[in-house]
Amino acid sequence: MLDLNITMAFQLVNFLIAIYVLNILLIRPIRDIIKKRNGIMDGMAEEAESFEYQAAERLTAYEAELARARQDAGLTREEGRAAGLEQQQTLVGEAQKNARDIIAETRESLREQAAKTLDDLRNQVSDFSARLAAKLIKG
User: Fold this and answer.
1) Which terminus of the chain is more solvent-facing, meaning fewer CB atoms within 10 Å of its CB: N or C?
2) Residue-wise pLDDT tens for the chain (139 aa)?
3) What is the largest CA-CA distance in the chain?
4) CA angle 130, 135, 139 (to 5 degrees)
5) 7: which DSSP letter?
6) 91-100: burial string, b at 16+ Cβ within 10 Å, e else
7) Per-residue DSSP letter, 3
8) CA torsion angle 15 20 22 26 (round to 10)
9) Rounded to whole angstroms, how far apart are CA atoms 125 and 41?
10) Distance (Å, rounded) from C-alpha 82 to C-alpha 35?
């Protein structure tokens, strides 16, 4: 059985004093450390969110810059293609003009040679006719 006497009261007072001392020496400092740690963790969480937000912004800016660079590259490629086509058409036009000039010069040269050859043949025909007539008369 349980006897209620003065030692029970001393033990109760001793227990309450021990809890009070433990609260001052152990529990309050641990609570303060836990509060500080929670504050640090909250600060780190906010900092992590800030870094995530900055990373998302930078990624968006990078993707926009990349899209703009691709668009500029496409425009530059099209401009180069158009300039190349224009230069090609210019070169082809010049080559065709040169070919027409060469053909015209060649035709003119051939006409002159044909006319000269025809004159030479006409001169030779009269010479041959005279020789033939002389041979026929002699012969």
Assistant:
1) N
2) 566 778 888 999 999 999 999 999 999 999 999 999 999 999 999 999 999 999 999 999 999 999 999 999 999 999 999 999 999 999 999 999 999 999 999 999 999 999 999 888 888 888 888 888 888 888 6
3) 188
4) 155
5) H
6) eeeeeeeeee
7) -
8) 160
9) 121
10) 70
Q: What is the pTM of this model?
A: 0.46
Using CA atoms, how far apart are residues 8 and 2, in angstroms rounded to an integer? 10
Return the structure tokens found at 46: 């906010």
Q: Residue 8 is encoded by which pair of tokens?
A: 């029970």
8-state DSSP, 5: -
Q: In the block, which residue shows the tokens 């450390």?
A: 33
Copy the structure tokens of residue 79: 């401009």
